[in-house]
Amino acid sequence: MQTYTDAIVCGIPETIPRSASTGASIDIGKAREQHRVYVETLRKLGMDVWELEPDDNHPDCTFVEDIAIICGDTALLCRPGQQNRENEVKVVKSILFREFSHIELLDLKDDRAKLDGGDVVFTGREIFVGMNKRTNEAGAQQVAKAFPDYPCLAIPLESPLHLKDYISMAGPKSIVVGDSAIARKVLQKIENEATYRYEIISVPDDLANCLYANGTLIHKAGHPNAAKVSTSIQYVCLFQLFAYLSKCSVFRLEFYV
Known about the structure:
Helix content is 24%, strand content 25%. The chain is an alpha/beta fold and 257 residues long. Strand 3 and strand 4 (74-77) form a beta hairpin.
């Protein structure tokens, strides 16, 4: 069973309303308070949290998980499909190089590759990669090459949203899946072609983007039945208004302890 020891997050810039990842009107004050509670929750779960300063020149910088995929002692630096995020990659690469010297940093070797970390789901046993306008087939192939010890399944998405907007891990062998037609197609692909079998938990689409870490499932508030999906893990309800912040503002360093 893996335990997350570290997390990297980025604060919320004034320019986040221009972010390509939100598509919603945002109360920046409320979002920042929710983000603060989120970071506090990660610390309560035993993680050392590294907080990056927000950059108003990069409206998407809060969504730091798009920038790198980290598994074990390897970090694959992404090339987000949204333009003008190159400096975000440089910032994350710098902190990984400086603070986590044991991690091998890999750049994408294919100039055609586009890759967003939000399109990558690591189950602990295999990797799913969503393909859409932000992550292409060449990007999915780079993931497979970077982590050869794990089977890698590419999943076409008929949507501009990330794969994690439709499925997330909810436990060591459990996947939450949204209830939309796109989510059902994703599930069908997994059931037909994944290497391993999982407990499938059906939820409304707006609850599918959740975060399982260190025995706790962090999910959007306002769903009183969410905690009934399993009796073996704890639940923390956060972010009634801005559920997208509950997942996309963090990537975890997946060390085994």
